Amino acid sequence: MPQLSPRSNGEWLAISGLVAHGFGVCLIPRLAPVPPEHRVVRVRLTGSPVPSRRLIACVRRGSADQPLIARGLAALDAAAAALGAVGAGGERAHRGAGGEGGNGDGTYP
Questions:
Q1: Is the CB of residue 56 less than 8 Å from the CB of residue 98?
Q2: Under DSSP, is residue 63 helix (H, G, I), strand (E, B) or coil?
């Protein structure tokens, strides 16, 4: 069985088509379209651990203060807080954390 990693909605359509024809099962995001002619059933995953995704917002240094970008980042922060989002290491999602190679303050040399 091939291991497929979709990167666009067109690929989700292809994968749901394969499932519809009996060529396996897949995990598909709720927002990915599945045409009605693909006779597949979506089953919500429950239990522990709950599947999740990590969302990282990256902006160019100094641009986080621009009004539209600041509002977008604030909306992401609010949505993460409402969902109780925590990172893989148990840390709460937050802005300004330095990533690999960063200075620890969200900037890079």
A1: no
A2: helix
DSSP-assigned letter for residue 65: G
pLDDT-above-70 percentage for the chain:
67
Residue 13: count of CB within 10 angstroms of its CB:
16
Decide if 42 contacts 62 (C-beta within 8 A).
no
At 32, list the tokens. 């990915």
Query: pLDDT, tens digit, for every residue of 59-107?
Result: 898 898 899 999 998 888 888 888 776 554 444 444 454 444 444 444 4
pTM over 0.90: no
Torsion of CA 99, 81, 59, 106, to 10 degrees: -40
DSSP state of 86: B
**SS3 label, residue 92:** strand
Dist CA 105 CA 109 (whole Å): 11
CA nearest to 26, candidates 37, 40, 9: 40
Q: Could you say which DSSP state residue 1 is in? A: -
